[in-house]
Design goal:
- The chain is α+β, with helices and mostly antiparallel strands and 75 residues long.
- 29% of the residues lie in helices and 36% in strands.
- It has a 4-stranded antiparallel β-sheet with strand order 2-3-1-4, covered by helices on one side.
- A hairpin with a 2-residue loop joins strand 2 and strand 3.
- It is globular.
- The relative contact order is 0.32.
Amino acid sequence: MNISDVLIHINQHLNEQQRQCLEDAMREIDGVIAPRFNAGTDHLLLIAFNPAATAAGVLLNQVRACGYDAQLIGA
């Protein structure tokens, strides 16, 4: 299995509960391995995923479906 990473910039400020809910929503997507926010970069969501099972655009669309303005970084 190949593993890719994607970095998603979220425009809104998210509190701890919002970040946890978003991580949980991302884990529901088939192929997502590890979504996470890192301390000090609470507006950046790093997601490890299997590109054979899902795509960066699908992940971005899920963030947007949760009600956040977001962009892929480096894509």
